[in-house]
Amino acid sequence: MQFTKPPIPVSEQIQKLQSRGLVINNIDFATVTLENISYYRLQGYWWFLQSDSVNHQFKTGVTFEDIVKIYAFDSQLRHIVFDAIETIEIAFRTKLIYHLSLKYGNWWFENANLFHSSNFFEKNLTEIDRELKRSNEVFITEHYRKYSEPERPPAYKTLEILSLGILSKLFKLLNRNIKQKKAIAKSLGLRTYHLENWILSITVIRNICAHHSRLWNRRLPKPIKELTKTNHNFIKGVQCSNIKLFYALSIILYLNDRIKSTHQFKTKLKGLISEHPFINLVSMGFPENWDNTDIWK
User: Which portions of the chain are predicted below pLDDT 70?
Assistant: First the structure.
């Protein structure tokens, strides 16, 4: 089937929403909102407010303001989550540089013997070179101004400008028997296969936040590897989906607990939820009594 729907002006967007049963009390407010937040961006926030998702009919009494409130909640949620991920990203980057450089030298990331896939190793180096080429960080441009060899700056410079996605692949590619890889995971209260999976999942969430995409009821593309055994507080005793946001928030909290004891992630998140009692926590994967689990209470 060919897509044939034409673009329509804001006034017609409002009429369409009204024809589908959405209550719009303030046309001016709706107009200004839709002029600054696109119809299809907001659409992701009203799906669960429909009684008929085929004909796109809204439940009785749903207002445009309800949708905007959920959108505002999601915006605040992304800021809180992004801040918590920053703590994880910086710590992970630092540990990767420190442990591997001390053992294998400043250019360990160029040593193919440390990685279990030569094909992906070469692709990773290509990505690293791309990032170095487009970087305008002073410590990178100054390095190239002063030094012509080796080809790339040392790890403590190069890895600082790499995305979390590249760093996560670099870590995953490292041979499992490398003690430093195990040490990094252990310092975060995990085994290597958990950290490999968790960092990849956190990278997805980070990118959602960075691109201002919908987060609050998002399903992750791949399941998070469940942590069933740990000496630290976690979500024991509750049933929850490992592809929904609650599990992702829990692993972010778990890692922040290992990195920075004074973090405010849990306080801020619980505060945000308490300020928005209308938010459907079930759609986010929150189980009953979630705030009584060891890590969240």
Answer: none
